[in-house]
């Protein structure tokens, strides 16, 4: 087989398996975020612990509650989907052999708490309870995420749950998004003990990326939800390599990549995303796309390097999107100052620009900007997060001391604009001329 010949110009090259096709990706689904792998590899220890959490359900005994934690991309969601699938299949098989009275009944409700942020309403126990109700109701009968007193929503939820029988397993993925109000996390696992339900047994699995969330859970929640805790450690580069090989084997044509491709993608994901398999898979996918765009039949190092840069860009934009409104306004103020060549800028200049931004975006509500001191607290956080750099000026005795701020190397106005777009916020131009003293 001849590699390295551009098939766009040489379609007669019948030696190449790509003669009709310059694509490197054979099965793109396998590289999608929501793809569930048939095998979970390098996770024997964790899977063993996790399987024993599900055993009582299979046996028709009271379910256990469990709390899973670990960094993003370490297989928490994948392992859970995998075990859920197996549990449901195995119960179905088992039930076929049993008389109806002895059959095991299981309902699984999967909620990704991240998706329960609607408009101004942050994800909360309340919103998730609404989500559970709506999973159990027909389309015409759903309730809205506003307009009910919290206690009413919980009552409706328990009423709906109690219409079922057997075991209800509620899986709360990204549960850290639920925030401070952990009512649901405390009550749901104990709902039968408290007397909220009689007919069903409720088991809850909470999955979290956020270590501090686990640490800050109230002792009551720790007692109930965290009955079993399973830690998903980060992958090392070798493990990432194995996961990636398996995935590449299904997703890419054999000639599209080499062991070096796998090694470099794994090494970069290990180094830059602390052992995230998600990052490794995204990197492989982006590399393959770039190679395709370049008409290359094989992923080369330069494609992987470029892909890595692309992902970093996306990551920064994503982390800007995650900031609260005040910080977004400050970043926007800095973007305008930057574009006008006015950075680095002193705090009071930034504050003046920030105040214009706040007033522009809140013309209807009349919300006022924070004081300079109030804004400075947010600005300091942005420095801490690495979005903004501080330049210390110290003119020695009598010369005064002041700080100036500018974007760090990771941030530029373009990324802030992209973040606004991702948040569906219009990018209004703010005039910062004459703002600097
Ligand atoms: N042990 C594994 N075996 C196969 N694929 C895995 C494994 N761990 C993670 N993955 C894949 O890596 C990606 C990220 O995993 P995911 O379970 O979503 O991470 P988390 O939920 O911990 O953030 C998914 O595409 C998943 O299929
Ligand atoms: Mg996940």
Automatic annotation (TrEMBL):
Coiled-coil region list: none
Domain Cdc6 C-terminal: 331-420
Molecular-function GO terms, alphabetical: ATP binding
Residues where ATP binds: 74-78, 235, 247
Keywords, alphabetical: ATP-binding, DNA replication, Nucleotide-binding
Pfam annotation, one family: Cdc6_lid
Domain AAA+ ATPase stretches: 62-232
A biological process from GO: DNA replication
Role, per record: Involved in regulation of DNA replication.
UniProt record similarity statement: Belongs to the CDC6/cdc18 family.
HAMAP family, alphabetized: ORC1_type_DNA_replic_protein (MF_01407)
NCBIfam families from the UniProt entry: orc1/cdc6 family replication initiation protein
Name the record gives this protein: ORC1-type DNA replication protein
Organism: Haladaptatus pallidirubidus
């Amino acid at each position: 087989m001849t590699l390295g010949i551009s098939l766009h110009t040489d379609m007669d090259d019948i030696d190449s398996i790509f003669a009709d096709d310059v694509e490197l990706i054979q099965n793109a689904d396998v590289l999608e975020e929501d793809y569930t792998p048939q095998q979970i590899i390098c996770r024997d220890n964790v899977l063993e612990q996790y399987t024993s959490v599900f055993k009582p359900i299979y046996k028709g005994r009271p379910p256990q509650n469990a709390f899973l934690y670990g960094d993003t991309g370490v297989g928490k969601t994948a392992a859970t989907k995998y075990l859920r699938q197996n549990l449901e299949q195995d119960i179905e098989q088992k039930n076929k052999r049993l008389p109806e009275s002895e059959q095991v009944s299981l309902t699984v409700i999967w909620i990704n708490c991240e998706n329960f942020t609607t408009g101004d309403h942050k994800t909360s126990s309340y919103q998730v309870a609404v989500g559970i109700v709506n999973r159990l109701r027909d389309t015409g009968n759903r309730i809205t995420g506003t307009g009910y007193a919290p206690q009413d929503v919980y009552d409706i939820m328990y009423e709906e749950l109690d219409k079922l029988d057997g075991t209800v397993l509620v899986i709360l993925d990204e549960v850290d998004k639920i925030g401070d109000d952990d009512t649901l996390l405390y009550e749901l696992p104990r709902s039968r003990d408290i007397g909220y339900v009689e007919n069903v047994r409720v088991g809850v699995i909470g999955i979290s990326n956020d270590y501090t969330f686990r640490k800050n859970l109230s002792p009551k929640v720790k007692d109930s939800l965290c009955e079993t805790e399973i830690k998903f450690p980060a992958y090392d580069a070798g493990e990432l390599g194995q996961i990636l090989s398996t995935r590449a084997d299904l997703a890419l044509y054999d000639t599209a990549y080499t062991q070096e491709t796998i090694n470099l993608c794994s090494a970069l994901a290990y180094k830059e995303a602390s052992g995230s398999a998600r990052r490794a898979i995204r990197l492989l996918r982006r590399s393959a796309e770039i190679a395709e765009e370049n008409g290359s039949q094989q992923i080369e190092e330069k494609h992987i390097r470029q892909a890595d840069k692309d992902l970093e860009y996306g990551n920064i934009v994503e982390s800007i999107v995650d900031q609260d409104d005040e910080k977004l306004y400050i970043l926007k103020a800095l973007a305008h100052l930057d574009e006008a060549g006015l950075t680095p800028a002193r705090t009071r200049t930034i504050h003046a620009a920030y105040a214009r931004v706040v007033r522009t975006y809140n013309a209807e509500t009349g919300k006022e900007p924070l004081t300079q001191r109030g804004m400075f607290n947010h600005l300091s956080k942005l420095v801490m997060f690495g979005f903004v750099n501080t330049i210390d000026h110290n003119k020695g005795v009598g010369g005064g001391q002041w700080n100036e701020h500018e974007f760090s190397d990771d941030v530029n106005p373009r990324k802030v604009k992209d973040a606004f777009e991702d948040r569906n916020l219009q990018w209004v131009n703010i005039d910062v001329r004459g703002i600097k003293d």
